[in-house]
Design goal:
- With about 575 residues, the protein is of the alpha+beta class.
- It folds into four domains: about 90 residues, Phosphorylase Kinase, domain 1; about 180 residues, Transferase(Phosphotransferase) domain 1 (Transferase(Phosphotransferase), domain 1); about 170 residues, Rossmann fold (3-Layer(aba) Sandwich), CATH 3.40.50.300; about 70 residues, Helicase, Ruva Protein, domain 3.
- It has 17 helices and 18 strands.
- The strands form five sheets. Strands 1-2-3-4-8-7 form a six-stranded antiparallel β-sheet.
- α3 runs antiparallel to α5, α12 packs parallel to α13 and α14 crosses α15.
- The protein starts with 8 loop residues before the first strand and ends in a 17-residue tail after the last helix.
Length: about 575
């Protein structure tokens, strides 16, 4: 179909950028009037077979309208129109921010049993919803259609995407094209054109095997341009052999039994989605999944380890023990002088207690990192904790809120007590100005007692094995008493990254991804002048998503296009001049 150029206004949306072309549709990122991104699929209904339409409407649109589950791509709007005289329909869904499971696997990642469960359980819940409440099957469950969405606070949520093959049971004439299906993840009956809910269970078993081993079950060499008939013949022959786990696989006996049950060639002997969900959920405590070492998801502070809602007066924060394999300061681009100073003035004193005692050296109580938003203050604090090897607590404003009188004071005291019990510890207060606003200001009304509690806890906390880090964009809003010596001893500005740092950031974020030979880090650093650290992370992630959906390497063209379409978040927006000529 006719490709729509960028910046084309279309109803309530504007075309932001082209993503990929399908058999009968094109995909785009679009934005609404407020600049919020969404995904949009355009369907060339004039070319689509009648079997893909329901009363004249694209079946994927019909299916998406009726689905309301947090683990499945979310419907926003749909409509129809004409382009150059050709009929088309469109579907708008929420924009996702994260990585496709297929992309993570291509990077060489093998998931542990706990991590694989953390992904599989929400997918099973969504699949049980499709099967039991809507009487539908997905029919195309593969790592490419599972998104690991990362929210703004770092929580990872697996989401099923692409409903282009979703349908009820199929036997006989297949009502959707099969040419774009991956035969490695198709059940034996699906290869022959029969699809049912047990076919999706086979696909889940294949995905689980892929996550643990890094390759598809019964892997064999098939050509990218081979016909679907040729591919299914090759896969069918490979399945005549026993399933073998390759060397280096994360083999787990419990999950191996699940895989065997799911990959049974007899559909009647495969478990139901709801039964499998119950089996895997028993005695399972959700763990932390790190998609990249520089953007580790954080556990949900609103949930306790047993997944129960906490009492209002409880502190539910949990220290994250730093593990081997984390990069510490090596993951931080630039800021070499600051890293060197902290190694000498803080980390060395905290780690070598014997020599510190000999010379009567007192470690600082804490430090304040301030500067523009999105420049890596919280990320730097996390890497500081990794470098020191101490337990790390990240605290957001809502974590210490309470509806009880003096409840917040009690939470503050409990937090420092918990950190002291697990000493040595690092506590990072994100947006520190919201915790300790200047007393007497409008924002500090009725909060003087909370600020006083912070002042009390900060006094010489380093002697109790607790080092405090505060991050803020508004140092002027912090109570002056907090900033004096003996409390927040050190203060460092984290500015927007310079050219050398931006180049290193692009290198870090592109590491481990499939990139084209034409990627020029120096030019990217030049084009990103004035961009924040978070902007660069977003640029690379969006470019990776575009490349993944198009099944190609991340190229200089894709990166520059993303830079062009996403201006720096630090740049002040231009206000329209009303009543004057431009």
């Amino acid at each position: 179909m006719t490709r729509l150029p960028d910046n084309t206004p279309f109803g309530d949306y504007t075309i932001h950028r082209f993503i990929k072309a399908g058999l009968y549709n094109d995909s785009y990122i679009v934005k609404n009037a407020e600049g919020v991104p969404f995904f949009m699929k355009f369907y060339d209904t004039g070319r689509m077979p009648d079997k893909m339409l329901v009363d004249g409407t694209v079946e994927e649109i019909v299916q998406c309208r009726g689905i309301a589950h947090p683990g499945i791509i979310r419907y926003v709007a749909d409509g129809s129109g004409k382009i150059n005289g050709r009929d088309f329909q469109y579907l708008v869904t929420y924009f996702f921010n994260g990585k496709l499971l297929s992309e993570v696997l291509r990077e060489g990642r093998k998931f542990t049993a706990s991590e694989a469960k953390a992904i599989l359980i929400p997918i099973l819940d969504a699949l049980a919803y499709l099967n039991e409440e809507l009487d539908l099957n997905h029919n195309d469950l593969t790592p490419r259609n599972i998104l690991l969405e990362t929210s703004s606070n770092g929580i990872v949520t697996p989401i099923i995407i692409d409903l282009g093959h979703t349908h009820d049971d199929v036997s006989g004439a297949v009502p959707f094209p099969m040419e774009d299906l991956n035969p490695f993840f198709l059940a034996p009956e699906a290869l022959m054109g029969t699809f049912n809910e047990k076919s999706d269970i086979f696909s889940l078993g294949a995905i689980l095997f892929n996550m643990l081993t890094g390759q598809e079950p019964w892997h064999c060499n098939i050509g990218a341009h081979d016909s679907f008939y040729s591919k299914k013949i090759s896969v069918g022959r490979a399945r005549q052999n026993a399933l073998e786990y390759p060397k280096g696989a994360n083999y787990d006996p419990e999950l191996a039994a699940v895989i065997d049950a799911c990959l049974n060639f007899d559909p009647a002997k495969r478990p139901d989605a709801s039964v499998l969900l119950k089996t895997l959920s028993e005695d399972f405590t959700p763990g932390e999944i790190t998609l990249r070492e520089d953007s580790a998801p954080r556990p949900d502070p609103a949930q306790t380890p047993d997944n129960q809602q906490p009492r209002e007066d409880q502190v539910v924060l949990k220290a994250r023990q730093n593990r081997s394999g984390k990069g510490g300061f090596a993951d931080v681009a630039g800021m070499n002088e600051l890293k060197e100073e902290l190694l000498k003035r803080v980390i060395w004193v905290l780690q070598d207690k014997e020599k510190a005692a000999k010379y009567r050296l007192l470690p600082p109580n804490g430090m304040l990192l301030y500067g523009p938003p999105g420049c890596g203050k919280t990320f730097f604090a996390k890497k500081f904790a990794e470098e020191s090897g101490f337990n790390y607590y990240l605290v957001n404003g809502s974590d210490l809120g309470s509806t009880y009188i003096h409840g917040t004071q009690g939470k503050i005291a409990d937090l420092f007590k918990k950190a002291e019990e697990n000493a040595p510890s690092v506590i990072c207060f994100d947006e520190f100005d919201s915790f300790v606003p200047a007393r007497g200001s409008d924002s500090a009304r009725n909060r003087a007692e909370e600020v006083n509690e912070f002042l009390s806890q900060l006094n010489n906390c380093a002697e109790r094995g607790v080092f405090v880090i505060g991050t803020t964009n508004r140092i002027d809003m912090i109570d002056p008493a907090v900033l004096r010596k003996g409390r927040m001893d050190l203060k460092y500005e984290i500015p927007a990254p310079d050219a050398e740092t931006r180049r290193a950031m692009f290198a870090i974020h592109l590491k481990g991804r499939p990139i084209a030979d034409d990627v020029d880090l120096n030019r990217l650093a030049l084009l990103s002048d004035g961009y924040a650290s978070s902007d660069i992370a977003f640029i690379v992630n969006e470019s990776a998503m575009v490349a993944a959906l198009a099944d190609e390497c991340i190229s200089q063209r894709i990166l520059e296009e993303s830079l062009r379409c996403n201006p720096s978040s630090l740049a002040a927006p231009k206000r329209p001049r009303i009543g004057f000529d431009n």
